[in-house]
């Protein structure tokens, strides 16, 4: 086991539930000290109880862009470095295109794209000074397909994949790798509820997934850990679909 001096420090946004929780769990099991950032203090506290001493929690609203520089500065001051950033936090709004207001569109873009940019910019400053680091963005099948009723989410996640490439080109020469995971249809509480209430959609999802099943949150955790590890030391600027083949299914 690595001692505390060598232990990596990771930040996972939205790490108290869903895919973020699974990513944090995988990191912690592999001796990576993981900082969970999120808005829901109760969920954060519950995650902290489950994860134990290799984690700490920071209740924070990433929509408050002006406060992000201090957040990152405080983390760096306390822990001395930041090795891994996982931009997982996000929101969705399911609504027909012609009913989406400018405000609703803006809110999704703000949370899913602007906050990712601001946090990554500030963390990158630390990583550049370290001459090493790993950034993992979380995209979606919405960036691969035209999915109805999620126009703002689709725009944001398409932007995430574009930013991943641009970030990688600028940051990789500084020793910082930037990659993206595009989860397919994963069996979370939220997705299970949505699909079980819509049998037609569920059948469509499964019929075009060559593996014929939903993924598990741990599949995303495994992919994130791989990208953060030395096993992926020559991988940067790419988006990896973790989707059971859904994105190439017919």
Automatic annotation (TrEMBL):
Lineage: Bacteria, Pseudomonadati, Bacteroidota, Sphingobacteriia, Sphingobacteriales
Assigned protein family: Belongs to the short-chain dehydrogenases/reductases (SDR) family.
Sorted UniProt keywords: Oxidoreductase
Keyword Ion transport part of the UniProt annotation: no
GO molecular function: oxidoreductase activity, acting on the CH-OH group of donors, NAD or NADP as acceptor; quinone binding
Source organism: Pedobacter ginsengisoli
The protein, known as: 3-oxoacyl-ACP reductase
PANTHER family, alphabetized: 3-OXOACYL-[ACYL-CARRIER-PROTEIN] REDUCTASE, SHORT-CHAIN DEHYDROGENASES/REDUCTASES FAMILY MEMBER
SUPFAM superfamilies referenced in this protein's UniProt entry, alphabetically: NAD(P)-binding Rossmann-fold domains
GO biological process: fatty acid biosynthetic process
Secretion signal, residue range per the UniProt entry: none
InterPro entries per the UniProt record, alphabetical: NAD(P)-bd_dom_sf, Sc_DH/Rdtase_CS, SDR_fam
Record flagged with keyword Oxidoreductase: yes
């Amino acid at each position: 086991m690595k001692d505390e001096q060598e232990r990596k420090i990771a930040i996972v946004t939205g790490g108290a539930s869903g895919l973020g929780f699974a990513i944090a769990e995988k990191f912690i099991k592999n001796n990576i000290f993981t900082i969970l950032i999120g808005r829901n203090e109760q969920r954060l506290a519950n995650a902290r109880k489950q994860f134990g001493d290799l984690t700490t929690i920071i209740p924070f609203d990433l929509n408050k862009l002006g406060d992000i520089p201090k957040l990152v500065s405080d983390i760096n001051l306390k822990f001395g470095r930041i090795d891994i950033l996982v931009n997982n936090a996000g929101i969705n709004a399911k609504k027909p295109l012609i009913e989406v207001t400018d405000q609703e569109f803006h809110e999704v873009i703000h949370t899913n794209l602007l906050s990712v940019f601001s946090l990554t910019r500030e963390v990158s400053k630390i990583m550049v000074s370290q001459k090493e680091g790993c950034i993992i963005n979380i995209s979606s099948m919405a960036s691969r397909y035209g999915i109805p009723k999620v126009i703002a989410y689709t725009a944001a996640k398409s932007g995430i994949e574009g930013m991943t490439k641009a970030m990688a080109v600028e940051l990789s020469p500084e020793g910082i790798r930037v990659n993206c995971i595009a989860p397919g249809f994963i069996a979370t509480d939220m997705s299970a509820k949505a699909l079980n209430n819509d049998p037609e959609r569920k059948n469509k999802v499964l019929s075009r997934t060559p593996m014929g099943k939903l993924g598990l949150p741990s599949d995303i955790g495994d992919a994130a850990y791989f990208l953060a590890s030395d096993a992926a030391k020559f991988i940067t600027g790419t988006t990896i679909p973790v989707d059971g083949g859904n994105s190439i299914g017919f």
